[in-house]
């Protein structure tokens, strides 16, 4: 097979429900880890590790995959662990298990999920796991039905997490200004550009080799030979053109949602990730696309300004997302679960 065929094969093998009935507890636990790895995560760094025992799975951060320039306090990393946690809990119910979460961030930076028997429940959110993706392209500006907006807002609620959801064009316009200001700031930061470049996968061969990072086609960009992609990104990157892309993207969106951690603790960042993941899966079930526009979250001064605009009184905005109706893009890949189970 050539690289494109191999990539397509890996996509089908990655983004799927279980092929066979699984009864062995150890095999079920491994399958729960596989579902967890299909969760959203920062820059597709997949910053997680897992330990399995007979009735517990521990989720741990992989600090070798952190992004210190854009995420110096690792709140994106811990939100990613929250996304994985939510996926695992939903998958557990599909296998007749109920997961109970306990978090130890003081000693071990661990999320413990203990399981007990539970009636099998293959929820709408579980079914959506294999179809969820961050779709970084133009949408069609079609309005979302009010009842669906209410459902999205309700399902995103969580302790110590504040939600701001708006379809008001004035809000989208004002939030766009923060995105452009932050994106301009980041693209002038050589350390940011260098780190971002490390996670770019310009073609299928690179995506297959790494099975992580931002695959060009999956982000709505043209695939290129690696040497051309590196040269273009280094010497030909146009900030104005990139800003215009975000202007078009946000103007084409139906709405935005912001997730704010009311207390800046790792546990609350994890809960924020769980909240976002439920939103993402429900949006997917409704036929909606969504994408992060986290630039304002990653520049402290602008993060504060955006928080003030959204009347966030406690904590900080952790995640900013646009949503709407749009096309399906090529998928990102995931590392084998054997690479993340320790």
Written description of the protein model:
With 342 residues, this protein is an alpha+beta fold. It folds into two domains: 3-132 and 334-339, putative nitroreductase (tm1586), domain 2 (NADH Oxidase), CATH 3.40.109; 146-324, NADH Oxidase. Helix content is 43%, strand content 17%. The protein is built from twelve helices and ten strands. It has helices at 3-14, 25-36, 75-94, 124-128, 146-155, 169-187, 190-198, 204-210, 226-235, 239-251, 266-285, 300-309, and strands at 48-52, 56-61, 97-104, 110-117, 161-166, 200-201, 214-215, 255-261, 289-292, 316-324. The strands form three sheets. The protein has a four-stranded antiparallel sheet with strand order 1-2-4-3, covered by helices on one side. The protein has a four-stranded antiparallel sheet with strand order 5-8-10-9, sandwiched between helices. α3 crosses α11 (266-285), α5 (146-155) runs antiparallel to α11 and α6 packs antiparallel against α10 (239-251). The longest helix is centred in the first third of the chain and has 20 residues, at 75-94. The chain is globular. The model has no long low-confidence stretch (mean pLDDT 95).
């Amino acid at each position: 097979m050539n690289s494109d065929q191999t990539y397509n094969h890996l996509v089908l093998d990655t983004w799927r429900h279980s092929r066979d009935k699984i009864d062995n507890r150890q095999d079920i636990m491994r399958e729960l880890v596989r579902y967890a790895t299909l969760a959203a995560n920062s820059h597709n760094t997949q910053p997680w590790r897992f330990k399995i025992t007979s009735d517990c799975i521990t989720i741990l951060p992989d600090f070798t995959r952190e992004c210190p320039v854009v995420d110096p306090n690792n709140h994106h990393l811990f939100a990613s662990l929250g996304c994985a946690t939510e996926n695992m809990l939903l998958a557990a119910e599909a296998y007749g298990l109920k997961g109970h979460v306990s978090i130890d961030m003081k000693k071990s930076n661990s999320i413990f999920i203990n399981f007990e028997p539970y009636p099998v429940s293959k929820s709408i959110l579980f079914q959506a796991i294999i179809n969820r993706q961050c779709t970084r392209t133009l949408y069609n500006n079609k309005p979302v039905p009010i009842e669906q907006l209410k459902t999205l807002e309700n399902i995103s609620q969580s302790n110590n997490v504040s939600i701001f959801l708006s379809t008001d064009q004035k809000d989208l316009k004002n939030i766009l200004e923060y995105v452009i200001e932050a994106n301009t700031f980041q693209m002038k930061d050589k350390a940011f550009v260098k780190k971002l470049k490390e996670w770019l996968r310009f073609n299928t061969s690179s995506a297959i080799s790494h099975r992580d990072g931002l695959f060009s086609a999956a982000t709505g960009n043209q695939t290129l030979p690696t040497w051309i992609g590196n040269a273009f990104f280094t010497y030909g990157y146009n900030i104005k053109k990139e800003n215009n892309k975000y202007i078009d993207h946000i103007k084409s969106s139906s709405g935005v949602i912001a997730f704010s951690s009311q207390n800046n603790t790792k546990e609350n960042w994890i809960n924020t990730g769980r909240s976002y993941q439920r939103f993402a899966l429900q949006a997917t079930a409704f036929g909606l696309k969504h994408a992060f526009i986290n630039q304002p979250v990653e520049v402290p001064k602008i993060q504060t300004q955006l928080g003030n605009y959204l009347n966030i009184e406690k904590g900080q905005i952790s995640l900013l997302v646009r949503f709407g109706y749009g096309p399906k893009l090529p998928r990102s890949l995931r590392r084998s679960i054997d690479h993340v189970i320790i």
